[in-house]
TrEMBL record, chains A, B:
It comes from the Bacteria. Has multiple catalytic activities. Apart from catalyzing the oxidation of (+)-tartrate to oxaloglycolate, also converts meso-tartrate to D-glycerate and catalyzes the oxidative decarboxylation of D-malate to pyruvate. Pathway: Carbohydrate acid metabolism; tartrate degradation; 2-hydroxy-3-oxosuccinate from L-tartrate: step 1/1; Carbohydrate acid metabolism; tartrate degradation; 2-hydroxy-3-oxosuccinate from meso-tartrate: step 1/1; Carbohydrate acid metabolism; tartrate degradation; D-glycerate from L-tartrate: step 1/1. It comes from Caenispirillum bisanense. This is D-malate dehydrogenase [decarboxylating]. Belongs to the isocitrate and isopropylmalate dehydrogenases family. Pfam families: Iso_dh (PF00180). SUPFAM superfamilies: Isocitrate/Isopropylmalate dehydrogenase-like. GO terms for molecular function: D-malate dehydrogenase (decarboxylating) (NAD+) activity; magnesium ion binding; NAD binding; tartrate decarboxylase activity; tartrate dehydrogenase activity. Its cofactor is Mg(2+); Mn(2+); K(+). Residues 5-348 form the Isopropylmalate dehydrogenase-like domain. Its EC number is 1.1.1.83, 1.1.1.93, 4.1.1.73. It catalyses: (R)-malate + NAD(+) = pyruvate + CO2 + NADH; (2R,3R)-tartrate + H(+) = (R)-glycerate + CO2; (2R,3R)-tartrate + NAD(+) = 2-hydroxy-3-oxosuccinate + NADH + H(+); tartrate + NAD(+) = 2-hydroxy-3-oxosuccinate + NADH + H(+).
Length: 352, 352
């Protein structure tokens, strides 16, 4: 039996409710596929910030640097400014551990109500590859004449050749591993005149290395329109930190799966642990009621298994999710059911 | 009879095909409402750039500074880099003439096929107010070690108190003039740590001046999801230059009207001419065939009339569009019909 040491960060709100279900299902699939986990639970959260003034201890990342993975619930709470909680926990982990790929699947499942008319399961099945370490999210910039009528605020977007190339490389390789071999780049080089034409140049240059991949690119504005009108066009979509962020909420919305969408923050070189978290947040409006949908967390667990080298175990989880949804198994309120969080977690564990 | 002097810039591609239809309908409504136009046509375009190296003459804006309005088709052509054509024509006009509000309606019309299931005309009817002069679109920034593996590229987003407050003021006033009195702000203050928290502060401060307006705000990622899942939630939505750009393509996509969406680039103080243009671009794939949908251009003409102080004439155009769509009048291919551009323009002129 191989044993993996996983840092578990339930975080805030419903994160604390869905993470145990993720663990339940991972334990179930582990028992079947002979995989063991050592869960190293951390209380890093807004609660901790309120008690100590820090989202996580100063040496937090040192302590998990050698772990095999990080299993995160959600971060953020109304009483803490969002930029404080996120830049105090989520974003430092993504950066310190060079998780420069944020991978997010978009799929229309059987048994899930999509807001779109006339789309059938199978029509929509693509991957979003989001740059996760630089770009529009940066500490650089600041505020001049703060609080006065003359205030000027600057935010610097920083793109590097190394940073862009490595995420594009990942996206091209991923596209190459898929039957359709089609890669779409999100840009805005007509409006944003320094970074986006640069992004396009990097994309065009790398495309030459992959003559078998069909490439195209769209400005982010019309690309969001295509996600709604032609979601069947896409196979792999690559975008900057901000554009990828937007597209990876929009994609799941289009497929009616925002509550179940997973994500993987990957360090493809495996020098550092990667992090797995649902796309949804801490959902203060329903936190504490035990009604949150655990599927995003559970599916994130499948992505973790995949990354750890257990694709069959990962597929077993996804297959259980497919069956639960298609066969009208228990589902939470956001998906039109009445089941609670634990019931859905147990049902999925049972299906495995 | 009041006569308005209007600069006409057909621009590129289908811009040259739809602008004449816009003029046809404006002439028809002018005849009825006793409004006359003096059309001052300009050849500013990518063609001009290829011939002269400039999208427009050096003194171009001087020559139209005193005009009553600008009626623009579309700018951009595949043989000219987008950032060259747009920053050589469209964006300088928006800025030089302080058109700091970009106003774009989102409406689900009777007779239009929306990609959404279960939405009826009347369910979706809101306005997007986009900041149009600063923010993410800026000349500031540049490229270090250009073309080398060590390249670093910076794009500076610049927000000013004056720039943010004036567009928010417009949005609050607009919300106040509407029955629902509801204003939504697009933000991303959890990821973008200098400019977006500042934007939120300006929004919160101004909300105090409008106690009768219901306000809310969403991060741009989940806001795009809400556009798809809950488009009925919105009344007026205000966003930065980039966020407004994205939302104002997504909104029309959700209502199936991307080919007919109009926009107004407004200088609310009327110190300078405002500019009216469809949301769609020059569409090189169908240009020259006479099959482009002219409704976006024609509706933009209605927004121009509104701005010039002729709300009834404006309403007559919108009413004609409503009738044409609801009564299955001639429509272009993008809307499932077989009519050409001129036929739709003539049908609308006849309806007036
Ligand atoms: C062409 C482009 C620069 C422009 C913009 O982003 O402003 C367009 O998308 C628009 O929305 O008017
Ligand atoms: C919470 C926020 C900072 C984060 C992001 O924008 O990266 C979230 O939206 C996500 O997509 O993981």
């Amino acid at each position: 039996t191989k044993t993996y040491k996983i840092a578990v960060i339930p975080g805030d709100g419903i994160g604390k409710e869905v993470v145990p279900e993720g663990i339940r299902v991972l334990e179930a699939v582990g028992a079947k596929f002979d995989i063991a986990f050592q869960w190293d639970e951390k209380d890093w959260s807004c609660e901790r910030w309120q008690a100590t003034g820090r989202m996580m201890p100063e040496d937090a990342l040192e302590g998990i640097r050698g772990h095999d993975g990080i299993f995160l619930g959600a971060v953020g709470w109304p009483t803490v400014p969002d930029h404080v909680s996120l830049w105090g926990l989520l974003i430092p982990i993504r950066r310190e551990f060079r998780q420069y790929v944020n991978l997010r699947p978009v799929r229309l499942f059987e048994g899930v109500r999509s807001p779109l008319a006339d789309r059938a399961p199978g029509d929509i099945d693509f991957m979003i590859v989001r740059e996760n370490n630089e770009g529009e999210y940066s500490e650089m910039g600041g505020r001049l004449n703060k609080g006065t009528p003359d205030e000027v605020v600057i935010q610097e977007n920083i793109f590097t050749r190394k940073g862009v190339d490595r995420v594009l490389r990942y996206a091209f390789d991923l596209a190459q591993s898929r039957p359709k071999k089609h890669l779409t780049s999100a840009t805005k080089s007509n409006g944003i005149i320094h970074t986006m034409p640069f992004w396009d140049e990097c994309f065009a240059a790398m495309a030459k290395d992959y003559p078998d991949i069909r490439t195209d690119q769209f400005h982010i504005d019309i690309l969001t329109a295509h996600f709604v009108q032609h979601p069947d066009w896409f196979d792999v979509v690559v975008g900057s930190n901000l554009f990828g962020d937007i597209l990876s909420d929009l994609g799941p919305a289009v497929t009616g799966t925002i509550g179940i969408a997973p994500s993987a923050n990957l360090n493809p070189e495996r020098e550092f642990p990667s992090m797995f978290e649902p796309v949804h947040g801490s959902a203060p409006d329903i936190a504490g009621q035990g009604i949150a949908n655990p599927i995003g967390q559970i599916w994130s667990g499948a992505m973790m298994l995949d990354h750890l080298g257990h694709p069959e175990a990962a597929r077993a989880i996804v297959a259980a999710i497919e069956r639960l949804l298609a066969e009208k198994g228990p589902r939470t309120r956001d998906m039109g059911g009445t089941a609670d969080t634990v019931a859905v977690g147990k049902a999925l564990a049972d299906l495995i």
